[in-house]
Amino acid sequence: MKTKLFILFIFTSIVLQAQIFNPVKWTFSQRSISETELELVFESSIDKPWHMYAMQLPPDGPIPTSFSFTQKKGVELIGKVHSKSKLITQHDPSFDMQLSWYEGKAIFIQKVKILDLDEFSVSGYVQFMCCNDSSCLPPKKEPFSFILKDKKHQKADTIPNVPSIIETPEADTTAVVAPVEEKKDSIAKNYWLPVIEQLKSFNGSSAHADDNRSLWFIFFAGLLGGLLALFTPCVWPIIPMTVSFFLKRNKDKHKGRREAIFYGLSIVVIYVLLGILITLIFGASALNTLSTNAVFNLLFFVILVIFAISFFGYFEITLPASWSTKLNDKAEHTTGLFSIFLMAFTLAVVSFSCTGPIIGTLLVEVSTSGTLIAPAVGMLGFALALALPFSLFALFPAWLNSMPRSGNWMTTIKVTLAFLELAFALKFLSVADLTSGWGILPRNLFIALWVAIFAGLGLFLLGVIRFPHSAKKIHLGKFRLFWALLSFAFAGYLVQGFWGAPLKAVSAFLPPQENIHVFRDYDEGMQYAATHKLPVFVDFTGYGCVNCRKMEAAVFTDNDVKKLLSEFVLISLYVDERKPLNEPILVTENGKPLLLETQGERWSYLQRTKFGANAQPYYILLDNDANPIAHPYAYDEDVNKFVRFLEDALKYYRKK
């Protein structure tokens, strides 16, 4: 599977309420060219703000629009399908490449030659993919069939080489079918019947994350990152020099203080603009893609390892010296507030070697929120922590005398950050491993590497391990032993993970535990539940779904949750599973035929037609007749809420 196609299954990780998206509608018609030739016309109507990708796309990109002709009788295709509709070509931030797509409307033409009037029929399907600025939908197949106009009362009701289907009663406008291999069970009990209306009868709604809480978490994460950057050798020594400069160059002390405060505000503006710029360039969905795409996670793994080696003192990473020189010269020859702004910008450039890794890690971490303003909020917290000392020392210059002097303690902090960068780097490698299914970094190996990293940090703080620019005696004052013991304690805490401890404090970083048996086939799981009279927990998930992994790590590992889940039959259905079915299955959805060819397409179809949703993660609790016993539950890492969700369902099931 192409690496960049992981974006297909991240599209719903930021959608917190269950929804069905169908932005592209197709109509099929034919027009005569001559007595023996026709044009088959495929017309798509594309809702705003969605777009559908072109037929010719570069490799490792999205799925192009394509036409497959599975049956041709009494007809010969002339050439290939072509389109004269307007193509929009530009850089697509979701896939980080130049792509072409259609918006609003697209018409495709296939020219055919009639060989036999009586036998003439053409059928097949068009496969396409569509995205908007914030999400993408999985590739979809739309079946089509053509007969001569004077025979249009006839209708092709099967697709060649596809098993027959068993029709079941309609619910609303959706006809749900059970695949032929489930025939014997479906006759007695059809587990695929829609329950959309029944779900609406439950009080409560799908759980969702608290966006305000998430933004506050992002803000404080940025604030912490700014405080760490503040105590690095690139920033701390500049504070007294800069404040003294403003106070001494102005005879009016009030003016000097105002300029120093404006300098601090300029730092805030610069970094917030950086966050906004990143969002405008890449978009919220593209940032979210970085959090799950294997290639980008490997890239960040390598970058953080390089930064860590630099922090250890083996080499120095800096932006070109000419940049800071030119900015400094510009600031000196410019007057007024603009010169102060340029000085703040110079600080951002000069301090890059220390702040770059912290900012990069922060931006990638906040990308998983799917919130458009997350990078700006994170940068606001970072910049406030970085700028606050410049303003405070300007208002209270006497504090400068008590300010700790630059020294070896800053080098110690920088090396400590190097260990933390290595720990974060492993997190990105783990995400790449999970989404790709390589299996190179299992949970125990991940924990072992973290134990080694934090034990190494403790040894460094005690002076046992030294690095090139930390050859002198390590110095953190009276707190040195405290921080060393804290690091050893954390390493000891991690050791519990070897014996299955959930490690809740760091569950979001670790690979998920996989010690719970689950069915991977819906019908098999339902039959087992009916035989043993047990309620059912259905988990609609995806290999590329980042929020699914976060739920598994932060919620499913909780002891109370595991105890409650043990009372259910667990069924985990991966909607992006590319394993082909033994035979394609023809079903009917919204009155139209639909061809299912992979396991993932089958489970996605089940989620849409039975439960009226296509977002992951999506959790449904059922009785033995596949009827709901609770409202659906989406992404929310509140363990107590999830426990109540399971407990209420069990009470309802036992009472029923």
Task: Estimate percent helicity.
Answer: 40-55%
Spatial shape:
globular
Strand content: 15-25%
In DSSP terms (H or I, runs of 4 or more residues), the helix count works out at 19
Mean pLDDT: 75
Number of DSSP-assigned strands = 18
Separation of the first and last Cα atoms: 45 Å
Could you give a short account of the major beta sheet? 4 strands, antiparallel
Radius of gyration (Å): 30 Å
Which runs of at least 5 residues are low in confidence (pLDDT < 50)? 1-18, 151-188, 205-213
What attributes does this structure have?
alpha+beta, four-stranded antiparallel sheet, 43% helix, 18 strands, single chain, 656 residues
Fold topology:
Elements: E1 24-32, E2 37-46, E3 51-53, E4 66-73, E5 75-83, E6 88-92, E7 97-102, E8 105-114, E9 121-128, E10 130-131, E11 140-147, E12 166-171, E13 174-178, H1 183-188, H2 196-200, H3 211-230, H4 238-249, H5 253-282, H6 284-290, H7 294-311, H8 321-332, H9 337-350, H10 352-366, H11 374-395, H12 408-436, H13 443-461, H14 480-495, H15 522-532, E14 536-541, H16 546-554, H17 559-565, E15 569-574, E16 580-589, E17 592-598, H18 599-611, E18 618-622, H19 639-655
Parallel strand pairs: 14-15
Antiparallel strand pairs: 1-2, 2-8, 3-7, 3-10, 4-9, 5-8, 6-7, 9-11, 12-13, 14-18, 16-17
Helix pairs in contact: 3-10, 3-11, 4-5, 4-11, 5-9, 5-11, 7-10, 7-12, 8-9, 10-11, 12-13, 13-14, 17-19
